[in-house]
Automatic annotation (TrEMBL):
Protein name: Scarecrow-like 3
Family assignment from sequence similarity: Belongs to the GRAS family.
Organism domain of life: Eukaryota
Keywords, ordered alphabetically: Glycosidase, Hydrolase, Lyase, Manganese, Metal-binding, Transcription, Transcription regulation
Organism listed in the record: Forsythia ovata
A GO MF label: hydrolase activity, acting on glycosyl bonds
Keyword Lyase: yes
Length: 330
């Protein structure tokens, strides 16, 4: 990451978290020594979610990917802060042992969105945080930047099922910049963009005019804003923060070209699965499991590992973005 962007992030953190002793969650959140030291010294920190670890991939690929992502953050001069709730304690920054524990727990850990946090803490449970819950804890400890693969969105037929991810409302109420590869076309992308507009979320696509669809660079829908460098992103975040806008920013980085051929294959499987779901009248809560199962079959099951990519976009020194890849089963 360009050093001017890194120092801007460090400045944002100071701004965002002026060692405010009354900040929410004080004494209830366990911040790892590494993350705590970075926040105190004004070193840039990047928050990471954990549902992708527990629910996104099988063990041990999940822990491998989680470690790889943390290593990429470090290589780029920042400190990773993976967020999860362990034995009822919200943790910001996990040790290798804690990452390993969460990864082994897999789906036994509760998928934890905003609505689930109080319950997981009250019952001393284990929770893997989604984008919404991760944003909340990042905000409480003063981390303005959060990197993930895909965010949740408005589901297809969401206009009647009202299945809209709480990631979207969280972006509307918590001033965190979420850097992601966009929204999967399993979801309703145009309605997701409309809903984010209603929520007042600034959406910027990175080096493109189009909003990316996770597996493919294009979705057919224009992104409201465009940024072309880490500095552009930093200025956007800075403006949002300085003005106290209080809603989030979504920066969408398209899948790198070298992976887009596989991305296109997956996209055509998604389209086929969607058509089958319509023909077989599969809707509501049965829809997503059907679609994902079918896409898995259509892309050849065994080739899951090579065909599915979890895009972890990161800014590079030269302004390009990099990606880590791993099998995905969600
Ligand atoms: N979509 C993806 N990858 C993911 C998720 C969604 O392409 O990893 C995960 C994230 O943790 C996200 C959550 O925050 O699922 C959204 O779930 P829901 O639709 O139930 O809100
Ligand atoms: Mn939902």
């Amino acid at each position: 990451m360009a050093s001017s962007a890194l120092s801007r992030i460090a400045n944002l953190q100071r701004h965002f978290n002026p060692s405010n002793p009354t900040s929410k969650g004080e004494g209830l959140i366990k911040i790892s020594p590494e993350v705590s030291a970075a926040l105190t010294r004004g070193k840039p920190v990047v928050a990471l979610e954990s549902t992708i670890i527990s629910h996104g991939m099988p063990y041990p690929q999940n822990v491998g990917t989680a470690k790889e992502v943390e290593a990429i953050v470090r290589e780029n001069g920042a400190v990773p802060a993976t967020v999860a709730i362990l034995d009822g304690v919200p943790c910001v920054g996990l040790s290798v042992e804690e990452l390993e524990r969460l990864a082994k727990m897999g789906r036994k850990a509760r998928k934890t969105a905003r609505r689930d946090i109080a319950y997981v803490v009250a019952t001393r449970g284990n929770g893997a945080t989604t984008v919404s819950a991760t944003m909340i804890f990042a905000s409480m400890v003063g981390i303005p930047i959060f990197v993930t693969g895909g965010i949740g969105g408005v589901h297809r037929y969401g206009e009647s099922t009202m299945d809209i991810s709480s990631d979207l409302t969280e972006l509307g109420r918590t001033p965190i910049a979420v850097i992601s590869a966009g929204v999967k076309s399993i979801l309703d992308i145009p309605r997701t963009l409309e809903y984010l507009e209603t929520q007042g979320v600034c959406i910027a696509a990175y080096k493109t005019d189009e909003f990316p669809a996770f597996f493919t660079e294009t979705s057919g829908y224009k992104a409201p804003c465009r940024v072309d460098s880490p500095e552009d992103c930093a200025r956007l975040i800075d403006s949002n923060m300085n003005l106290g806008i209080n809603s989030g920013i979504l920066v969408a980085i398209p899948i790198p070209k070298e992976y887009s051929a596989s991305g296109n294959l997956i996209e055509s499987a998604i389209q086929k699965a969607l058509k089958e779901a319509r023909e077989q009248n599969i809707t509501g809560s049965a829809e997503t499991p059907f679609l994902l199962g079918r896409v898995n079959e259509l892309t050849g099951g065994a080739s899951l590992a090579s065909n599915f990519f979890v895009c972890i976009p990161m800014f590079q020194e030269d302004g390009s973005s990099s990606v880590t890849s791993s099998p995905l089963q969600m």
